[in-house]
Amino acid sequence: MIRVKHRYLLVEATSSVQNEALLNELLNRIGTRYYAVNPRILNVRGSMVIRCSLDGLSELIVALSLIKSIGGKECAFYTIRSSGTIRALMSK
C-alpha cells in the first residue's frame, strides 16, 4: 500500500472568505485534477492552512494565485510558506 504524502500551505487572504466558497472556486480552477490535489482547509491560530497532496502542490499554488474574486467580493491569496507538517509551518 502506498502512503499519500501531504503538504501544508500557509495562505493569507486579503478579505475574509467562507471555506466552502473557496473550495468551490478551487474546483472550478483546477477542474478534473481537483480530486488528485485533494485540498482541505484548516484554520490554525487564526491563519488559513490548506492541506493538499504532494503531487498537486504546484497546481494548488497556481489556482490560488489566479483567483481574483469569490462571490462577487474581490479577494487575493498569498502563499506565505509551505511545509510537510503543520508544526514546522507554524514554527517560523
SSE layout:
Elements: E1 6-13, H1 19-30, H2 34-37, E2 40-44, E3 47-53, H3 57-66, E4 69-70, E5 73-74, E6 77-83, H4 86-91
Question: Brief description of this entry?
Answer:
The chain is α+β, with helices and mostly antiparallel strands and 92 residues long. It has one domain (6-82): 2-Layer Sandwich (Alpha-Beta Plaits), CATH 3.30.70.3250. The chain has helices spanning 19-30, 34-37, 57-66, 86-91; strands spanning 6-13, 40-44, 47-53, 69-70, 73-74, 77-83.
Any overview of this molecule?
- There is one protein chain.
- This protein has helices at residues 19-30, 34-37, 57-66, 86-91; strands at residues 6-13, 40-44, 47-53, 69-70, 73-74, 77-83.
- With 92 residues, it is α+β, with helices and mostly antiparallel strands.
- It has one domain (6-82): Alpha-Beta Plaits (2-Layer Sandwich).
- The strands form two sheets. It has a four-stranded antiparallel beta sheet with strand order 2-3-1-6. A two-stranded antiparallel sheet has the order 4-5.
- It is globular.
Q: Can you give keywords for this protein?
A:
single chain, 92 residues, Alpha-Beta Plaits, 35% helix, alpha+beta
Going by helix content, strand content and strand pairing, the class is alpha+beta
- Fourth-level CATH superfamily: Ribonuclease P, Pop5 subunit
Total helix count?
4
What is the N-to-C order of secondary-structure elements (H for helix, E for strand)? EHHEEHEEEH
The percentage of residues in β strands lies in: 25-35%
Shape: globular
- Walk across the major sheet and give the strand order: 2-3-1-6
Largest sheet data: 4 strands, antiparallel
Q: Low-confidence spans: pLDDT under 50, at least 5 residues?
A: none
Helix content: 25-40%
How many domains comprise the coordinates? 1
Mean pLDDT: 90
The CATH architecture designation is: 2-Layer Sandwich
